[in-house]
Specification:
By secondary structure, the protein is an all-alpha fold. The chain has 18 helices and no strands.
């Protein structure tokens, strides 16, 4: 008998689940998982520098101000949308709309991943773009095809990159000593290639510092330890599946390990550096698993995660931007319906030659993309090393 799969709008709930959560409970647990990261971001970027008398009281509160502004801006922008567009002009009506919209989440996420020195008005603009353009105009919660928070983040980091970077150390509400140095991935992008991965790690301490999160980066996305604990909590509560974050991060680890073994003298260190740096873990747990913009089918999740890992390594190590996580997730968001259709169709059929050929075809495609990524990155690194050697020879 043919099996049926839901391909409509998420989130979904299976009748056979022993422990069923409502959408409100899912969103509540999601926010609970973010709280330790927010507190860590404040302690790291605000409280500790204040105790060391490096910043003022206002600057000490700035991380929390960013979080509050992001959340409040998102909610207010949706209130305005409901009032103007949907003509909801009663408090009860607005309260009902907001209870089904969960507008606070995009703003929280954007505030957590922006640099600490991001001006408030830039953050507010990103939240408005995320909630209005990429969420509400698509039909609201459950109907967006792209992750709203990542779209808002991509907008402000692209359109206002110069404003954000030039804001370091400019005074009021712009802390000068809070993680304002180059991030590890910016350092990697600047070097172009690395023979000894310790060169990437030593300016920030050790891999333990990367794991704990005491390195420059987004406001509240640097602590790998807390992100892993939050991931375990969300999986235990059945808010997210382990498939996407584990396979996504695992793919990045394997590919960077191979690249590291070929191009550096310590492949394991290079791989761990890439896993613990930037927004990979945060994106894998809190962005890639969003139920609306990620695949619903089990096989689709696996394909999605594998492609995310390959594209992230490709964009991060060969592109001009130092990250790659946001770009990869947003790009694959567009292909989620296609991935789900493909995965549901072959999974609902009996195992036969046609189904096996489709699985093999998808596997070959992913392997070829991975092979191209490894070849392209290692070739790029080799050319960089040759160029450096030629420069040294000329100088000598």
């Amino acid at each position: 008998m043919a099996r049926r799969f839901a391909l409509g709008k998420a989130p979904f709930q299976r009748i056979t689940d022993e422990k069923r959560l409502s959408t409100s409970q899912i969103m509540r647990d999601f926010i609970i998982a973010l709280v330790p990261l927010i507190l860590f971001g404040w302690v790291k970027n605000g409280l500790l520098p204040f105790i060391r008398e490096e910043i003022s009281v206002i600057e000490m509160l700035y991380p929390l101000i960013l979080i509050l502004v992001g959340a409040l801006t998102s909610v207010v922008s949706e209130v305005i949308f409901f009032y103007v567009w949907k003509k909801t002009n009663t408090w009860e009506g607005l309260k009902k709309e907001l209870s089904l919209s969960y507008g606070v989440i995009p703003g929280l996420l954007i505030a957590m991943i922006v640099p600490i020195y991001t001006p408030v008005w830039v953050l507010m603009l990103g939240c408005v773009v995320a909630n209005i353009l990429f969420k509400m105009l698509f039909g609201g919660f459950g109907h967006n095809i792209l992750n709203p928070a990542l779209m808002g983040y991509a907008f402000i980091t692209t359109a206002f990159y110069g404003v954000i970077t030039s804001s370091v150390g400019q005074g009021f509400f712009l802390p000068s000593e809070l993680a304002s140095g180059a991030t590890p991935l910016q350092n990697l992008a600047g070097l172009g290639s690395v023979t000894n991965p310790d060169v990437l790690i030593s300016p920030y301490g050790s891999l333990l510092d990367f794991f704990l999160g005491t390195v420059p980066g987004g406001l509240a996305e640097t602590s790998s330890l807390l992100i892993i604990l939050s991931c375990i909590f969300l999986i235990a509560r059945k808010v997210i599946s382990w498939v996407i974050p584990v396979i996504y991060v695992g793919t990045v680890f394997v590919l960077t390990l191979i690249i590291g073994l070929i191009s550096t003298d310590n492949g394991l260190t290079f791989a761990l550096f890439n896993v613990l740096s930037g927004g990979l873990l945060f994106g894998a747990v809190f962005m890639a698993t969003e139920p609306v913009t990620s695949p619903k089918t089990p096989n689709g999740k696996v394909i999605f995660a594998l492609l995310l890992g390959v594209l992230t390594v490709l964009f991060r190590l060969s592109g001009k931007l130092p990250e790659g996580v946001a770009t990869s997730i947003l790009l694959l968001n567009l292909f989620v319906p296609m991935i789900d259709r493909f995965a549901a169709t072959i999974r609902a059929k009996k195992i036969n030659r046609q189904v096996i050929l489709k699985y093999v075809g998808m596997g070959v495609f992913i392997l070829l993309l991975a092979f191209y990524t490894v070849f392209h990155v290692t070739n790029k690194y080799e050319k960089k090393d040759i160029a450096k050697a030629e420069v040294v020879e000329v100088i000598e």
